[in-house]
Amino acid sequence: HKTTVLRLLRTLAEQHFVFRDGSHRYHLGARVHELSSRGLEQREVRAIASPHLREFNRAHGRTTHLSELAGTEIVYIDKLESHDHVRMASRIGLCAPLHSTAAGKVLLADLPRDELDAVLADLSFPRITPNMITDRAGFLAELATVREQGWAHDREENEPSINCIGAPVRGASGRAVAAVSVSEPDIVTGY
């Protein structure tokens, strides 16, 4: 009911989880951003990978992501921008499809078959760009290649004119706990 929603929004506003603008619309407030930052700080893989990602980004100047598996998507838990003027649509906290990202392919290729089948059962393979793999059989063949070579390639499958290479970040058990991906604009690589 409207009155219940308004009462809840007022309580959230008092605690700075939301704020109301001059047009009487509510937006996420400072406390949400604070919680988000705390959540990222608590991710051990991010803390361990961060200095290595910064060093790589400094040396090569390409957009670098750290991602984790989140259902049928990946979630970016760290991002370092490229040193040129090409910017990607990604940002920390944003989710992206598993089937169209190098990071997603790497994470899926590392799953045991029963876990992979469970994820693929929920995946619909929507077409985002013309280069995407949109069928299960083709995607399974791609994952077999990824498994064999140990890394994945996204050929303008998630964003037009952006190519990515992804590699697993393995935990103590040897399983992939995250993925690192490096993005390069098509205009640079000439793919």
What is the secondary structure topology, with strand pairs?
Elements: H1 2-14, E1 18-20, E2 26-28, H2 30-41, H3 44-60, E3 63-70, E4 73-80, E5 95-97, H4 102-109, H5 113-121, H6 136-149, E6 152-155, E7 162-170, E8 176-185, H7 186-189
Antiparallel strand pairs: 1-2, 3-4, 3-8, 4-5, 6-7, 7-8
Please give a structural write-up.
By secondary structure, this protein is an alpha+beta fold. The protein is 40% helix and 25% strand. The chain contains 7 helices and 8 strands. The protein has helices at residues 2-14, 30-41, 44-60, 102-109, 113-121, 136-149, 186-189, and strands spanning 18-20, 26-28, 63-70, 73-80, 95-97, 152-155, 162-170, 176-185. The strands form 2 sheets. Strands 5-4-3-8-7-6 form a 6-stranded antiparallel β-sheet, with helices on both faces. Strands 1-2 form a two-stranded antiparallel sheet. A hairpin with a 2-residue loop joins β3 and β4. The longest helix is centred in the N-terminal third of the chain and has 17 residues, at 44-60.
In whole angstroms, the N-to-C terminal distance is: 54 Å
Give me the secondary-structure category: alpha+beta
Low-confidence stretches: none
Largest sheet: 6 strands, antiparallel
Radius of gyration, taken over Cα atoms and rounded to an integer in Å: 19 Å
Mean pLDDT: 85
N-to-C order of helices and strands: HEEHHEEEHHHEEEH
Summary?
The protein has 191 residues and is of the alpha+beta class. It has helices at residues 2-14, 30-41, 44-60, 102-109, 113-121, 136-149, 186-189; strands at 18-20, 26-28, 63-70, 73-80, 95-97, 152-155, 162-170, 176-185. The strands form two sheets. The protein has a six-stranded antiparallel β-sheet with strand order 5-4-3-8-7-6, sandwiched between helices. The chain has a two-stranded antiparallel sheet with strand order 1-2.
